[in-house]
Amino acid sequence: MNVFGVIIFSTLFFTFLLRIVANVVNLRFAGAGLPDEFKGVFDGKAYEKSQRYLRKNTAFSMVSGGFDLAVLLIFWFSGGFGAIDTVVRGFGQSSIVTGLLFFGVLLLFQSLISLPFTLYRIFVIEEKFGFNKTTPSTFIVDTLKSVVLGVTLGGPVLAALLWFFEYTGAMAWLWAWAGITFFSLLLQYAAPSLIMPLFNRFTPLEDGELKSAIMRYAKSVGFPLEGIYVIDGSRRSSKANAFFTGFGRQKRIALFDTLIEQHSVEELVAVLAHEIGHYKKKHILISMVLNALNTGVIFFLLSVFMNNRLLFDAFYVQETSVYASLVFFFLLYSPIEFLLSIVLQMLSRKHEFEADYYAATTYSNGGALVDALKKLSRSSLSNLTPHPFYVFLNYSHPPVLERIRRITNVTS
Question: What global pTM score does this model have?
Fold first, then answer.
C-alpha cells in the first residue's frame, strides 16, 4: 500500500472510529432526564419511547456504517475496482461510455448492498415506532423514479464531466465547474415544479384562517409569496416538516399535511416565519455560493490528481482513466470533505439560530415557535439532550433545547 492508500485507509478508519465514539457518548449523555422545558409536553412513557428510538437508531447506524466500511475495504483490497475496469473496457466502447458503465456498475453494487438496510430502517424501525406510512408499492415506485431520474439527469451530467476532463485540456476543471454550477442553478429553478411533484403531490393551500394569517404575516415583512403548498407527506411518514425551495417565480413554501394536522394556526405561521427568515437573511444564497466555491476547489484539485499513477496503484488498477480518477480522488478527498462538513454544519446551526431570531422578533406571537418546536420534538421522538461532541460532528440544526432557550430569552 503506497502513501495514497495509507491516507485513504487511515481516514476511513479514523472517521468511522470517531463516529462510534460520538455515538457512545451520545447514548450515555441522553439519559440525563427530561428537561424542565418539556415537562407537560413529554410524559414518562413518551420520553422513554424517545430514548428507545435513539438507542435503536444509534445501533442501526453503527452496524450499517461498519458493514459499509467492511464491504468497501474488502472490495478495494480484493481488486474489485480493477476487475470492474477490466470488464467495462472489454466492451470496446469510447472512454465516455466506458466511464458511464464503470459508474453504473459501482452504483448498482452500492445500491444492492444498501437496500436491506434501507428496507430495515423504513419497514422495521420506523414501523415499530409508528412513523412509517410507506407501502411496499410506494417504495418500489419511488425507487424506480429515482433510478430513471438518475439515468436521465445524472447520466448526461456525468458524461459531460468526463468529456470536459478528457478533451478540454488544462482548463478542464474551469469548464466543468461552470457547467456543473449552471446545471445546479437550473435544477434549483426546475425542481419545485418538475421534479419534486414526481414524488409528492403539491396542493395549493386552501383559502381560510391559515392562509389569511400567513398572507398577513408575509405582507408585514415584505415577503413576496408566489405560492403556499401542502405536501402529502403522510403518504410516507407521520413526521412533519416545512421548507422553502426554489427561487425566482418558482420559489415555494411547502407545508407537510402532517404539520398542519398537528399544529395550531399561530404555530404554523411561526414555523413559516422561520423559513422566511432563511430567505430574508440570504442563507439560501450563501449556501449556494459556498457549494459553488467548494465545487470549484474540488474540480481544481481533481485536475491536479487526474490520472495519477500512484493513486491508481493504491487501488490496484492497471490503466489510468478520467472516470476512475473521479472515484479515487473523491476517496482521497474524504479527509477534507469530513472537515468541511463540520464547518458547514456549524454555519448551518448559526443560520438556524438567526432564522429563529427573525421569526421571534417579526411575528407578533414569537413564542408560538417554541410551542411548535416542542410539539415537533415530541411527534418525532427527538433526542432532547444530545452530547455536544455528537452535535459538533452530525447536527445541521442546533439541539432543540438550545433553540427553545434562545427564543424564550428573546420573547420574554
Answer: 0.91
